[in-house]
Amino acid sequence: MTSPDSITGHGNISTGVAGGDSNASATRITPGNALRPEDIALEVRTGLTKPTDDVAEYALRLGDDALILAQRLGHWISRAPELEEDVALGNIALDQLGHARSFLSYAGGAWGKSEDDLAYFRREHEFRSAHLFEQPNGDFAVTIARQFLVSYYQYELYRRLTESTDATLAAISAKAVKEVDYHRDHSAQWILRLGNGTDESRRRMIHGIRLMWPYVNEIFEDDELVLRLAQSGAAVAPSSLRDDFDALIGEVLAEAGLEVPEVPAAPGGGRRGQHSEHLGYILAEMQVLAREHPGASW
Amino acid sequence: MSPHGNPDVPASGASDVIRGARQVSAGPPTAEAAATEAQAASTTSADQANISTLSSEPVGHATENAAWGLWEVFVRSNRGLSHVHAGSLHAPDAAMALRNARDLYTRRNEGVSVWVVPAEAITSSDPGTKGAFFESPQGKDYRHATYYTKSEGVKHL
Known about the structure:
The structure holds two protein chains of two kinds.
Chain A: H1 4-8, H2 37-45, H3 53-74, H4 83-108, H5 115-120, H6 131-134, H7 140-161, H8 167-195, H9 199-212, H10 216-219, H11 224-232, H12 242-255, H13 277-292
Helix pairs in contact in A: 2-4, 3-4, 3-11, 4-8, 7-8, 7-9, 7-12, 8-9
Chain B: E1 22-24, H1 31-55, E2 69-76, E3 84-91, H2 94-105, E4 113-118, E5 123-125, H3 130-135
Parallel strand pairs in B: 1-5
Antiparallel strand pairs in B: 2-3, 2-4
């Protein structure tokens, strides 16, 4: 499915910031050397790489998941239980936003659209995010429950996508998987502390997992698109991640004295543009500025 | 806790007075030093009280929820350099302190290694008795290499 161009066009895609490590100094702090969304946007704009329609649709799903979650997490800024946790959630939101920018920049290459076109000027039914990502923050334990499920899923996904036959998907995933690994650790630490903490923290943690669990099924559902892409090696079938996901979250939950709740699965439909009532409000807040002042910059 | 003003100077947030650290007065005890110490102790507990009222809202109640402890953060920016005091933070335990340190003090690629130390485990010199404690080395130029004239014929100096 992947054209030869998109494999060979990446000779220097991971070099990132000019100079990088060759300018490293013992006393000067540099931004470091990694793949940036700007690098992908540039490759797409100059025609060095272009995703197939299937890959673009797939990248749109991953980008929308990350974008909607980033928007949700960003709402915690100035509202977290402690200043330190405020920054931690903000950092995770920014990591997710970075992944969203990379995936959307790449996806847009198929249709001549920029990341901003896709983020700010699509309507609700054109978003492809799964329902888990748009779930309301609730209290801190609810947010941690959502983050726990999301980051263990994303880790299994990106870990495998580093071997995608699509070089750009592989490069984005290679950067993202390390960041998501930290998100796993962050949420697992909190699952343990809230689960094994006070009666109140435990009650809230159980409640949080119970609220989020119905949306787990959807993220592991296969459909025609992912099965086509899995066959070509560009993507992986979400269902194939489920066993590892269940085993790893099971370990953490057991250590926290918690259980997988027995609740029916929600119907889903996010990948087909069918969303819960929450997404519209998220988009209204996220898109209003760009739509009020098209082309504005600051 | 604002170490990020100038990214070229990572340790600018560090001060010579570590909040929450025990201060041991240097030299003979004086009435003045004792007063300073008492004052320092009372400010510290007042700070702690403030923190607990601010922090306990979302999880549980203030009464059953002790405030997070204060930790001092040391960041090593590169191999071969020393860990340098970067600032402080609050955390419920050592594992979370390390993660908070990573989130707060290495966001701009500042570090390759981080230490966290409970602030109360640090014993610091008392700023009130600075004079006597640090007076002795003043004026002793002969303790510096520049005091000596280079002997003729000595290479590699």
